[in-house]
Amino acid sequence: MNPAERLLAIYDKFIENRPDVVASQVWAVVFDLDVGSPSLDDEVTDCLVALRTQIDFTRRLLGVKYSVPEELLNPGLIRLRDAAAPRVMNQAWSTLRSGIQEPACRQSFLWAGWVLRAETEAEIPEEELTALHSEVAALEEALKAAELSEYLRGFIGNQVQVIKDALRVYRVQGVKPINDALTRVAGAYTVERSRVQKEMVAAQPEAQGLFQKVTALVGKTAKVCDAVEKIKTGYETASGIAAKVGPVLLPFVGKMLG
Q: Between helices 150-168 and 126-145, what is the axis angle to 10°?
């Protein structure tokens, strides 16, 4: 998908016919969030902020790179942005839907998608995306029960959370936030290298195993992102995220990006 096609997919899901509830519950469905999550409002807010950022990015791309007049992007992009404001997410969904369901709104996204047809990004296969989400969830559960030093618990938990947050907004912003997250993770591994290695030497086998699983998740996520780039360009890139992250991980658990 290109940026405008991502927005169209979100728009179509938001205006589907459904029982009238507060908008946050509809957004949870649109963003494929767990409606039973105790932090659902925070997760919806994160996705809405990402969506508004993506709308702004798309408008700039169309205007600056493709010289598309602003009036051709209305009313769809502007009205979706307004409906995605976190301050209105607890309003009735029907009041927000009514303002953006007219055909002219959808036409804005169709037009923008056609203009941006050269900006298409390959998609992470659904089974791979599901597998990454499942691994993150499993690591979160394992982290709760594991006997770890407070330092290792914080370090491991932070890396899992960074990747989880990036995967959550993938359907909104594509692979970029995942690449950015992996860069942050690599930075943490680099800065904390000496302390982490010292803690790992003293850690119990359970803690060492959990740390290796998290590091494997980082490597696997990097390879998935590189595969998306390869599909788009048709060749491997020496500057891919796996090539950047891999050397950082090697001192901890040995070669795993292969």
A: 160
